[in-house]
């Protein structure tokens, strides 16, 4: 079973305590009524579907219940890092240097 | 009309011999789910009469009341059944200065204590993280088998489980079954 580090609990917890919650850093348009149909469709549905490193939201639903962000490799399923919701997207180059 | 139901209260499994384990359905008590901004937790600490733990997993207890930090702004409060009304009125008084949510969930859950040298081994059958690494005097929300529980480690060999009533019989039967495994050297 995968262990996922919860940035709020500061602990490695089993994956069954977590749920996936889609791609991270999706910015909602400030004024949705000003967007045209294509922009609104892109905001709602169009996602990266990355092969490799992917920024995504997870929720520690059976633990502290917080949403947080994670950088996961979609090929190897390895979690590279996790960080609290609201923090800026870390640069992948910085993470690779520290790995 | 809804009726309070305590399926496990008074139930007890006591096993003596080489692998003594006690599984005990606890009497009903007062339980609260407290949500308050961490910056205002001092007011809640004063109302409750104990210092709310700030680290997730931390437990503080005083004069029969216990608070477990479940999340950055979430605490689980346990007290004697007769003490529940006093907690509600104490928090009602601070609501104007420190807005919060205090929900009485006494009826929702039931308590089980599992005690004995092999209690960690029995629980480990259904818990996916390493219980040996769980410090005494901490707690967390987690999954036991498929049911969500709140787990507190009271001493090295004594754990308290808080589980929703609707899952409690499943958890009870699960514990009763897995505690036989050490007996049969499985």
What does this protein look like?
Chain A is an alpha+beta fold and 99 residues long. Chain A has a single domain (3-98), classed as 2-Layer Sandwich (Folate-binding fold), CATH 3.30.2270. Helices cover 16% and strands 33% of the residues of chain A. Chain A has helices at residues 37-45, 92-98, and strands at 3-6, 11-14, 19-23, 53-59, 67-73, 79-84. In chain A, strands 3-4-5-6 form a four-stranded antiparallel beta sheet, with no helix packed on it. The two termini of chain A are 22 Å apart. The mean pLDDT of chain A is 92. With 186 residues, chain B is α+β, with helices and mostly antiparallel strands. Chain B has two domains: 12-27 and 107-183, Gyrase A, domain 2 (2-Layer Sandwich); 30-106, 2-Layer Sandwich (Alpha-Beta Plaits), CATH 3.30.70.1520. Helices cover 23% and strands 36% of the residues of chain B. Chain B has helices at residues 41-48, 84-94, 119-124, 165-178, 180-183, and strands at residues 12-15, 21-25, 30-36, 59-62, 65-71, 74-79, 100-104, 109-115, 139-144, 147-155, 158-164. In chain B, the strands form two sheets. Chain B has a six-stranded antiparallel beta sheet with strand order 1-2-8-11-10-9.
